[in-house]
Structures are given as C-alpha cells and as structure tokens.
Specification:
The protein is mainly α.
C-alpha cells in the first residue's frame, strides 16, 4: 500500500518541531548540572540528543508504518530506520558543536557572541568600553551597549554551550525532518521477510 504523503509530510513537520525541542531540553538539563569540562558536556549533549532522537523517530516511523501497512509489521526495519535517523541527528548536532562558524551562524541571531580575552586585553577592553559608553551617553540619550565584553573562562564556556544548544536545535530540526523522509523508505516496507 502506498504511503499517504499528507501523513508523511505531517510527520516530517512534527519531527522538525520535536527536534527543535530535544537539543534545547538536553542543553537545559546539562546546564543545570554541576560544572563539567566543556568537551565532556558536548559529547554527552550529542549522544543524549541522538538517543532521544532515535526513540522519537522510532515512534514516528511506527505510526507511519501502521498507516501504510495496516499495522506495524516489521519492527526490524523501523529500528534500522530509527538508528539511521539517530546517526543523522548526531552528525547534524555535532556540526555546531565542533565547527564554530556553523554554531555562530545561527546563535548570533539570538544574541551577540563575546570573545574570550586575556586579562590584559580584558582591562584594555573595559577601559575602551567605559570611555566609549561615556562618549555615547554624552551624545545620545541611550547607550548602545552597557558593560564590557570581557568574559571569564567559565562564562565563556557557558556562552559557548548555549550557542551549541541553539545551533544544535536548528540543525537537529532538519535532521528530524530528513530522518523521517529517509527512514520512511525502509519503515514503510510492508513485505516482512
């Protein structure tokens, strides 16, 4: 029986939305945990996002097979397709985690990126920012930016992880939609071997 394309597109859209929420939820969970080094946090973020994605994709693909085949006929094809989807999600979430330009392209839409500065550069930056703020406040009623851009190493890691979470949500959304599309080819095979 052919796949109902309206259902397929609806499930792809649903997967797109859910895959925006998965990295945000995982990122918030990891943000409230006690401090851990950023590389370990990123690895847990990618793996946990991929695992949850696989479970979600499994549910979506089951519903797609149930519709196309008048019930769930082949769990192996669904699990294989969900595994492919989870692998795709892991790759897409790893993009912003390990490639700065992929992360900043998306995250800077939601907030400015502040660079990590050495203590000497931070002092220079604070002096320039203060002088610039005084100059701007003398010429306009509203200062452009308050406070310096210098961050401590812990603040920088928190900013970077937030950017990874935002970038991961963006890229995971596409992985979720494409995952259903790719997985539907295997999951809607009604011929059980």
């Amino acid at each position: 029986m052919p796949v109902d394309t309206n259902l397929l597109y609806g499930i792809m859209a649903g997967s797109w939305l859910v895959h925006i929420a998965i990295p945000v939820g995982v990122g918030v969970l990891l943000s409230v945990l006690p401090y851990m080094v950023l590389p370990r946090k990123i690895m847990i973020f990618v793996l946990l996002t991929a695992a949850i994605s696989g479970l979600v994709q499994c549910g979506f693909l089951m519903s797609l097979q149930a519709s196309a085949c008048k019930g769930v006929k082949d769990y192996r094809s669904i699990l294989t397709a969900a595994g492919i989807c989870a692998f795709l999600t892991a790759g897409m979430v790893a993009l912003p985690a390990y490639i700065e330009s992929m992360r900043l392209t998306v995250s800077q839409l939601f907030g400015a990126h502040k660079s990590l500065l050495t203590p000497a550069m931070a002092r220079i930056n604070n002096v320039i920012t203060t002088a610039g703020g005084e100059l701007v406040s003398a010429t306009t009623p509203d200062p452009v930016q308050k406070g310096g851009a210098a961050l401590t190493y812990i603040e920088y890691e928190a900013q970077e992880f937030k950017e990874i979470m935002i970038g991961g949500a963006y890229w995971a959304a596409f992985a979720g939609a494409y995952g259903v599309g790719i997985g539907s080819m295997a999951a809607t095979n009604c011929n059980v071997n």
